[in-house]
Design brief:
Largest sheet: 9 strands, mixed
Shape: elongated
GO molecular function: peptidoglycan L,D-transpeptidase activity; transferase activity
Order of helices and strands: HHHHHEEEEEEEEEHEHE
Number of helices: 7
Pathway: Cell wall biogenesis; peptidoglycan biosynthesis
CATH topology of the largest domain: L,D-transpeptidase catalytic domain-like
Protein name: Murein L,D-transpeptidase
Number of domains: 2
CATH architecture of the largest domain: Beta Barrel
Pfam family, one: PG_binding_1
Oligomer: single chain
Distance between the termini: 89 Å
Strand order of the largest sheet: 6-11-3-4-5-10-9-8-7
Number of strands: 11
Keywords: Cell shape, Cell wall biogenesis/degradation, Peptidoglycan synthesis, Signal, Transferase
Helix content: 25-40%
Radius of gyration: 32 Å
Strand content: 15-25%
Amino acid sequence: MRALIIRNVLAGVVAGTVIAALAGLGMSATAAPAATTDLKTVPFEVSGELPIYPKALYKNGSSGTSVRKVEARLVQLKLLEKRYQDNDFGTMTRSAVKKFQKSKGIPQLGYVDQNTWNKLSAATHEPTQAELFPPAPVVNGKKLDARCATGVALCIDKTTRKLRYVVDGVVKMQLDVRFGAVKTATREGSFTVGWKSRNHVSKLYDSKMPYAMFFSGGQAVHYSSDFAARGYNGASHGCVNVRDLGKIKVLFDEVNVGDKVIVYRS
């Protein structure tokens, strides 16, 4: 009870001091300062970007067939290389969209809003099936994996034991390869080159792996002196071995981080 009385007394003192100060300034304690501006709300659509920006139909991180159609139209205008027509709205697609927006004198948002889509549609034709999904390359009368048909790919066939360097559906180089043994099998699937190491040495196996292009954990495409000497009598620890030193030197310089690696059986 005593504490409550003290708090009330203190509050009264503070209030009295404030009132006295206001009176000294010629102001009423009950008067409120006059509003100088009227606040107005501006309608907008929330799009995941800043609220004042138009809604994004396709943006960085979007994926799917609709994105492929956008990319195909950008390819038609030669704003995007065909290798980047891959269903994923990434850095190169974003750059191409900004170039298109600049050419049309509209804000360079870097994503496709309704206005950009309308202008892009008007400037291009509906992509054909062949433009969207080019036929797989054919080597010696046999089709490669369809995933090798677009962009840049290290197309690795475990059945024929061949690695083919494919650019926009054209086979640029073909190399003999061997794979891991049963207990250290080379993984199959769709990957990308994660990193490269020209003079790599395996810490796990204490063996040289020159011109290594890693695509799945510790598995990489690389030159193997053992493969060059013993051929298919040996096996790797899971990597894709190449025995032609001259060719892999050239291939190493051609391949970029992010290029596709497709390992499959035909």
